[in-house]
User: Fold this.
Amino acid sequence: MDIPDWQAAAANTLWRPYRQMKNAPPSLPVVGASGVRMTLADGRELIDGIASWWTACHGHRHPHITAALADQLNHVHHVMLGGLVHPQAARLSTRLAALCPGDLDHVFFSESGSVSVEIALKMAIQYWRNKGVQGRTRFLAFRGGYHGDTMAAMSVCDPEEGMHTMFRGALAEQVIAPIPRTRQDRQAVLRLLTEHHSELAGVIVEPLVQGAGGMRFHAADDLAWLRRVTEDRELLLIADEIMTGFGRLGTMFACDQAGVVPDIMTLSKALTGGTLPLAATVARSSVFDAFWSDEPGHELMHGPTFMGNALACAAANASLDLFALNTDRLDRARAMELQLREGLAGCLDLPGVVDVRCRGALGVVELAGPADREWWVQHAVDNGVWLRPFGNIVYTTPPLVMDADDLDRIIGTMVSGLRVG
Assistant:
């Protein structure tokens, strides 16, 4: 397709993510988005099979969220939360506290998922120091995990197979364990927890699905087991729900499926319905209480400039309205799982396919070798769909409002690509 003038002018100034700028093909120019579709500069429409990196849970440009943003523009765009507060942040914190499992009642805002993880790690370390316990500065994390691209977040990602291996030596060394799926895995986790107990500030996990590290699944029982062993050892459990939160797996949070209340939870991505950057680090009362003191230095030492941005909080409140008003959102995610399972099941018989797995509004086909991303992108675009594989994973995370016909088109595009790719 022809490249618009505005895109050509930015060919060398717009530094794109995860791309070798020297030889990467031009990005697809998007000039509009509505519902589950994006419009390209040449007029073609693509069904968004990725929900814009899993954020657009209600589809693009939902009128309720758009109206909330338009109204907020007439009041407050942004004020610092250092010494000031505004209604949208106050309301959102109250609603998140009511929505999150158990007594996860204390909400600290930031601008991105990676930063919310940084805050969670920092919160856990300072928790112990505030309690007078020294030396607890490391974390147990899991192979296959991914928690973001900032420095501390990278340190708790998979250090061998993940995208951050080139930063080895520059990152803090954490304790890495297998996800406790089997008896052997659980024994390894217990051994590491015992060996490193005195230096661990906590354990961080992506509940039920490890996202960008490979879309690996584990069972609710595995998560419940991890909660029990961390409680037994009085270790903080951090649940990274940045990908899984807000309905992706058929419940509001993945932890709900295991009946688990983590000590700290991180949220982002779908929090604002895919409109504006916003994240939250939510703590239980037992964690918050360690910062509640008359002693100087016990306050949480963090304060992002745009934390609790009024426009972003307005969007998030509107997104929560939609979950409350449209009780079928979670039902639709569960229905998508059945449709994805049925539609992708036959892929197991195709050459090069080693696994097919589906959970909620998430369908994954794992290949024996790396997926040719550029070929897959072109194949999907030719079929009117936007897909973006990574590593050896071809997947879809559709908006929760997608109907069965559009999801069938995504499934058909994945299956046809696997047959000829």
Observations:
- The mean pLDDT is 97.
- The domain at 75-325 is CATH 3.40.640.10 (Aspartate Aminotransferase; domain 2).
